Amino acid sequence: MNSRTCIAAVLFATLSGAAAQVASHAPTPLKMVTSSPAAVGDTKFTLGSSVQVTGRPVVNVNGVLLTDRDLLREMYQMFPYARQHNNGFPKGEEEGIRRGALQMIEFEELVYQDASRRKMAIPEARLNEAVGQFRSQFQSEQEYREYLKQEQNGSELQLRKHIRRSLLIESALRAELDEKSKVTQSEAQQYYQTHPKAFQHGEMYGFQSISIVPPANATGDVREKTRQRAEDALKQARATKSYQDFGLLAEKISQDDFRVNMGDHRMMAKADLPPVVLKTIANMKEGQVGGLLQIDSFYTILRLGAHVPPGKVSFAEVEGKLTQDLHKSKYDRLRHNLDSRLRTHAKILEL
Known about the structure:
Elements: H1 3-10, H2 30-33, E1 45-46, E2 52-53, E3 57-61, E4 64-67, H3 68-78, H4 94-117, H5 124-135, H6 141-151, H7 156-178, H8 185-194, E5 200-201, E6 204-212, H9 220-239, H10 243-253, E7 264-269, H11 275-281, E8 289-295, E9 298-308, E10 311-312, H12 315-344, E11 348-350
Antiparallel strand pairs: 1-2, 3-4, 3-11, 5-10, 6-7, 6-9, 8-9
Helix pairs in contact: 3-4, 4-7, 5-7, 8-12
């Protein structure tokens, strides 16, 4: 483990990510989804995996055939990073991505068929606007015409039909999921009141850090220079007067992973803090900058931003996040129920 990794481990550098799946029912040009100019028409191209596109049907949904071209678009929506890896999917994960994408295009087709049965319509003005937006993706008229030729049989009427389908799916999902999954303030407040334990917290600390790290395999002289730099950094840190001042200094001279966030570690539970860190900040006042804290071969300077005793987070503090979480939970439940309902009497045959 190198010095910077060690700092991240000791000072709890965390990395989290979220991936939002975007529906691929719009007629996206496949050549804009892949990086291969051979990814249009009937030309077969091989990705950095076993996926190939020929235009062959992959599933029959109530008599409507969906092709491997539709499937690949959805796979790229689910894993867009494939384009950064020679158009391939992670080894061992491709089948799972393919399965999820297949279920998605089946679901979208079922939503479209249901919306059509209910005689939902798209205003002509909205359709014209969407067609114009789609066409603006192309850098030239020639490129647009080539797309029409390769993927729409040269027919603008067919393109309009596909865009209308996309808008109809979006409209149906908005009505069935987006609108029905909205969470009111009173609903969020009721959840807050009926789940009091979920909003209780133990003792918490918020702090900033500046770390000075010697090079790997540093000699005694280099280590001594590192300490001198750390002592100089401490003088500068103690001269700061605010969160902003300390944060700007951290961005400038710190060598730990938190420098990009003004050295800010946000609020952390007392139980989650390393003993060496807790021992230092437990005796500090808010706004105070501590002394040099040596961890292995590197030096860290801590500034205590906040110390919060055990208690309960107020509704005002959690309202936004709580509303968002309740909305997502409600949306996912409604989507699952809609998918189950539409599949109940559907005839779906994977080819």
